[in-house]
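ARCHIVE RECORD
Type: protein–small molecule complex
Small molecule: D-xylitol-5-phosphate
Source of inputs: curated submission
Record status: active
Notes field left blank by submitter.
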Amino acid sequence: MSERVLMAPSILSADFMDLGAAVRLIQDGGADFIHVDVMDGHFVPNLTIGPPVVKALKRVATVPLDVHLMIDNADSAVGWYLDAGADLVTVHAEACDHLHRVVQTIRGAGARAGVSLNPGTPVEALRDIIGEVDLVLIMSVNPGFGGQSFIPRSVDRVRRLAALCVEEGVAPLIQVDGGIDPTTAPLVASTGARCLVAGSAVFCQSDPISAMNSIREAAERVL
Ligand code: DX5
Ligand code: ZN
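STRUCTURE (tokenized, with ligand):
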């Protein structure tokens, strides 16, 4: 059997009046993670949700909560999200004063640790942390909003990240987030992505489950 591509639908594009229903629908439909976008109005211009909503989501989630922190001062706030029940916490390298310590804190709490890079941050910046993380998230849009266009250079960034992992002898899960749909998914899967975040291409569609499956199938076809 060929390799699988994991799907992490982003509830940023779901109906915020009925988040529980969105989570139940998509996890019953085969989602591997629930991707939760936390934005603080500082690190990114937009403002979304915080620990109380993560805690509420945890009550209905049967798959791991993948919490993507687009916030300043992740060093001090990360504990709130761990306490709220995040199973995987991804922080931005650009937003942490002490990235290594934050990663240790996440893993020390028994969660999986991810590190994310904005499109303008060189992949090489991760060399000295890559052996300490479970996941690397390559942003394929500038974070802050759903529904943006995929930045084509992201394909080569994933390729260079995969090469860096080989050089360092490590194999974190490579995740890509932003503008992922059935057309862009195979591009990043072919260079090394094995976990895809998709918001509008899932929850803004009339049948979110078949939309998610189309993205996964398109990606797996090129493996
Ligand atoms: C963007 C967020 C994404 C967003 C993706 O800042 O991190 O997770 O929800 O949305 P789409 O898939 O619509 O680009
Ligand atoms: Zn995200």
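CURATOR ANNOTATION: DSSP finds eight helices and eight strands in the chain.
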